[in-house]
C-alpha cells in the first residue's frame, strides 16, 4: 500500500482535533487554504470523503472518526522518537519565558542552577511570543496567563497579584501617602503588558475596588513591558501598578516599596511551567521545574 503524503495526514489530524481548518492553520503556521488543499489531496488519495462540510462547520465522517485516534497516536509516537533524538543531539535545554521574568528572576539566578546541575546546559529564550512546541526548538516554557492547553503538561507555580509600587526615596520626598486615594494625586505609571487579558486589573479597576471616585485613572506614562514600567518607578517617575512577583527582587533590594500592600488585586492569572507531555519525564524538565519551585517557594 502506498502511503499518502505525510503533510496531508498531518493536516487531517490537526483539523480533525480542532474541527476547524482555521485553527489547524494557526497550529501549523499555514493558511486555511493550504489545510483545505492538503485534505483534498488526502481524500483523493483514499478515494473517500473525510469531512462533511456544513456552511462554516466541518464534521468528521464515521470512517474519519474511527481513524483519528490511531493517527493521533502515531504522531505522538513520532514526537517521542524525535524527542529522544533531540535529547542526544541537542547540547542545550531551551526554556522560553517573557522578557520581564527572564531579567528579574532567571538571569540573576541561572548560574545557581548551573552550579547544581552542570550537565544541563540551560538556555533562556526571552520572548513575548507564545511557544508552539510542535515546530519550535524549545523544551519548556514559563508563562503568565490562564493555562488552557490540554495537550501540554503544565504545573502552576504561583498565583499573580498586582500592587502599587514606587521608589522609597521618591515616596519620602512626597511626604508619604496616608490612604490609597492619595495615589491619584501623583503621576501614574501604566504596565500595559498585562492587558492581553481584557479582565486584567488596571488603575481604573483599582480605584473602583477601593471606592475611589472623581480621579483621573488614565493619565501618565505607559509601557508595554513590565520591566520597563518597574524601571520607570525605580527612576522616580511615579507610582506603578504592576505584578508583585516581578517586583519582588527590587522590593527586597530596597529599590521599590509596596504601597498599601493590603490592597493588592488578584489578576486571576498565574505563572505556569509547561512542556510537551512526551518531554515531561525528561531529567532536564524535572530538575528545572523542581529548581523553579524552590526559587518561588518563599514568595
TrEMBL record:
Share an example GO biological-process annotation for this protein. Answer: DNA-templated transcription
Pfam families (alphabetical): HTH_1 (PF00126), LysR_substrate (PF03466)
Cite the GO molecular-function annotations of the record. Answer: DNA-binding transcription factor activity; sequence-specific DNA binding
Per the record, the domain of life is: Bacteria
InterPro entries registered for this protein in UniProt: LysR-type_TF_proteobact-type (IPR058163), LysR_HTH_N (IPR000847), LysR_subst-bd (IPR005119), WH-like_DNA-bd_sf (IPR036388), WH_DNA-bd_sf (IPR036390)
Q: Where does the HTH lysR-type domain start and stop, copy by copy?
A: 4-61
User: What does the UniProt keyword field contain?
Assistant: DNA-binding, Transcription, Transcription regulation
Q: Which CDD domains match?
A: PBP2_GcdR_TrpI_HvrB_AmpR_like
Family listed: Belongs to the LysR transcriptional regulatory family.
Q: What is the protein name given in its UniProt record?
A: LysR family transcriptional regulator
Amino acid at each position: 500500500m502506498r502511503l499518502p503524503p505525510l503533510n496531508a495526514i498531518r493536516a487531517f489530524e490537526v483539523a480533525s482535533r480542532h474541527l476547524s481548518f482555521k485553527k489547524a492553520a494557526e497550529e501549523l503556521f499555514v493558511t486555511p487554504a493550504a489545510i483545505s488543499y492538503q485534505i483534498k489531496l488526502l481524500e483523493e488519495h483514499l478515494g473517500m470523503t473525510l469531512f462533511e462540510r456544513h456552511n462554516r462547520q466541518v464534521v468528521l465522517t464515521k470512517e474519519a472518526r474511527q481513524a483519528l485516534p490511531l493517527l493521533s497516536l502515531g504522531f505522538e509516537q513520532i514526537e517521542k522518537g524525535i524527542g529522544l533524538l533531540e535529547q542526544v543531539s541537542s547540547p542545550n535545554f531551551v526554556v522560553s519565558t517573557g522578557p520581564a521574568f527572564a531579567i528579574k528572576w532567571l538571569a540573576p539566578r541561572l548560574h545557581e542552577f548551573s552550579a547544581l546541575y552542570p550537565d544541563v546546559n540551560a538556555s533562556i529564550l526571552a520572548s513575548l511570543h507564545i511557544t508552539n512546541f510542535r515546530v519550535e526548538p524549545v523544551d519548556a516554557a514559563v508563562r503568565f496567563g490562564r493555562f488552557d492547553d490540554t495537550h501540554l503538561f503544565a504545573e502552576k507555580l504561583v498565583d499573580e497579584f498586582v500592587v502599587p509600587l514606587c521608589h522609597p526615596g521618591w515616596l519620602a520626598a512626597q511626604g508619604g501617602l496616608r490612604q490609597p486615594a492619595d495615589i491619584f494625586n501623583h503621576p501614574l505609571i501604566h504596565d500595559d503588558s498585562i492587558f492581553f487579558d481584557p479582565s486584567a486589573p488596571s488603575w481604573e479597576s483599582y480605584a473602583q475596588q477601593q471606592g475611589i471616585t472623581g480621579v483621573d485613572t488614565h493619565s501618565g506614562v505607559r509601557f508595554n513591558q513590565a520591566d520597563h514600567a518597574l524601571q520607570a518607578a525605580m527612576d522616580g517617575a511615579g507610582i506603578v501598578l504592576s505584578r508583585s512577583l516581578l517586583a519582588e527582587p527590587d522590593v527586597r533590594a530596597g529599590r521599590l516599596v509596596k504601597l498599601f500592600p493590603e490592597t493588592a488585586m488578584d489578576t486571576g492569572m498565574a505563572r505556569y511551567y509547561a512542556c510537551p507531555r512526551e518531554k515531561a519525564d525528561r531529567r532536564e524538565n524535572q530538575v528545572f521545574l523542581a529548581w523553579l519551585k524552590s526559587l518561588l517557594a518563599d514568595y
